[in-house]
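Collaborator request, handled under Task 6.
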Amino acid sequence: MSRRRRALLLGGLSLLLGALAAADVAGREAALDARLGPAIAVVVARTAIAPGARIERRDLAVRLVPERYAPRGAFGAPAEVAGARAAVALPAGTDLGPAALAGTRPGPAGALVGAPPGERIARIVAVGAASELPAGSRADILVTREGVDGGAVTRVALRDVEVVGARPAEAVPEGSGTGLPRVGLALRVTVRQAVFLVEAQATARELRALPRPASASHRR
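Structure tokens returned to the collaborator:
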């Protein structure tokens, strides 16, 4: 075999091996993406935020996280957070969810004026339409958790709670691909209920807000 032919053969072999290696890497990346799920947006603190400080748009950033590792209940757009106040100290890079916010906007904050000491404003993000849950309305909160057999178990967690603020949030995908509306809610609840909602937002598969008709309010 001539030297020229040998060089051409080795060059072709190198190209073939390179293509096979690239295909193998692409296949591994695709498999990894399938396991982790698509990347979703999570709002984080761009800079450190002091407790009680009003959170401005410039204080926020968005990072993309594989769906599998994204914190449950985290906000997906800065508009859902800007204008609120920090419930605790928020170091730079902190993922922001309802538990990080405290009595924030004029409406929800004013709802506690003259209220009993045991009442609080709790914030959640749930499946629901903001247009159906105006301030002053009441709602039932459903919580869906993973069942022992891998299925889902849904129950009524809170009944007849007062809505003191609502704003549209990022939609969540459904099997059909159309997506379900989500709503950021400020609810007037007891301390025990607030603690339950924080835990449920962090660990449950889904929270859902069901508007109650005015005629059904206060009926247990």
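The cover message to the collaborator said: "The mean pLDDT is 77. The radius of gyration is 24 Å. Please let us know whether this matches your experimental observations."
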